[in-house]
Amino acid sequence: MKWSEVRKLYPDQFVKLKVLSSHIKNGQEFIEDIAVIKPISDELATKELLKSKGDELVYHTTNENILLEVRQDVRLRRFDYHENQA
Fold this sequence. Notes:
By secondary structure, the chain is α+β, with helices and mostly antiparallel strands. The protein contains two helices and four strands; from the N terminus they run H-E-E-H-E-E. It has one domain (3-69). 16% of the residues lie in helices and 38% in strands. It has a four-stranded antiparallel beta sheet with strand order 3-1-2-4. It starts with a helix and ends in a 17-residue tail after the last strand.
């Protein structure tokens, strides 16, 4: 389903979505095809977003497009002090 269709079916509300297809360009992910899991009340939107995994997201239908910023995976580096001891 296209985002424009979702916006017509669920005007002015949050929806939980499963991303079916997307592409990344210049550090942004452009969502092309989605499946609606369920509409979400404003009160539960943050809770549902935190429970979302992998290709699921919560987005508000007042947004004309679904556009996500892709962030690099920043991992904490651990320095083992015992490595350098003789």
